[in-house]
Amino acid sequence: MTEKRIVVVGAGVAGLTTALLLSKKSGYKITIAAKHMPGDYDIQYASPWAGANSMPVSVGGTDAAEWDKNTWFALEELARHHPDAGVHFQKANIYNRKKDIGSDTAKWFSELLSPDPWWKTLFPDYKQIPRTELGADVDNGHHFTSVCINTAIYLPWLVSRCLENGVVFKRAVFSHITDAAARGVHHSGQAADVVLNCTGLGSRSLGGVADELVYPARGQIVVVRNEADEMVSVSGTDDGPDEAMYIMTRAAGGGTILGGCYQKHNWESQPDPSLALRIMKRCVKACPQLTNGRGIEHLDVIRHGVGLRPVRDGGARIEKEKIDGTWVVHNYGHGGAGYQCSYGCAQVAARLVDEAGLEGEKAKL
């Protein structure tokens, strides 16, 4: 088979993971062309702002559940055998309050908070938290060992693995998805055979895609130097239906993430000081260890951050289509699950690239 020229548009976790999997196959020459790269912090670039961890929120029996499952095994392997990736194991406690039913955060977490979740078999130490260990307003809870990802290490790690496999990186901005197939974009100088669309929220405005089902779910976090032994997450808060409470400590000195919110259709890029204060109060109350039982003034703040989760009504889009004569494989719209479904989604996208390449070969015969 003639070597196929692939251009991946987008260098977030979806684009990097898909490029990495493709780079392990023979027969592909890959260029990643993106406006933002690891090391950038911009509101248009969601991946650096993520927590990130693995807490399945997909519905059992769906494609999304399969993507989460396949990704968990990959992340577990990294945490166990590749400390340079910035992924480590961390105990997790998830608490469900029935009074949060119907809120945006509870809808987001709905499967995570099921009393009998499909994903419990993924985690060997999974157990229901005994009623005697739950707070008065908590109805059920889960305990298991998950992973937390230091995105500042993990994204560059993905880049380095891609570079080892011959992937070329370049900065580029496109107004139409097929522009990425034009001569001069791929590092060979020739037109691309297949374009991968991993533009996340950008797919809403990108020509040739213009997917109006994609919208932001704004998240706001506080990153602190204080450490927590365990991840903690609650189905909702008493401060509003789109506010959340979660804590996770990143690997390799990456700080502890305090969150958060799930504000649908909110494009605001600047942190809200009032929300930041509520986040810190909720997290210190839920995890007094953060400040050794003292107040929020003893939090050692690194920075405040805002990210826009690329949510898509109907779920992530992973499919291929021909646009103006160019094969395009889409992999976007993962919402707040971009890391925990990254490998599973990339596996599907890579297979679609294979299919598009074979169809291109047949068309030449």
Automatic annotation (TrEMBL):
Keywords in alphabetical order: FAD, Flavoprotein, Oxidoreductase
Co-factor requirement: FAD
FAD dependent oxidoreductase domain sequence ranges: 5-352
PROSITE patterns linked to this entry: DAO
EC numbers: 1.4.3.3
Parts forming coiled coils: none
Name used for this protein in its record: D-amino acid oxidase
Source species of the chain: Neonectria punicea
Gene name as annotated: DAO1
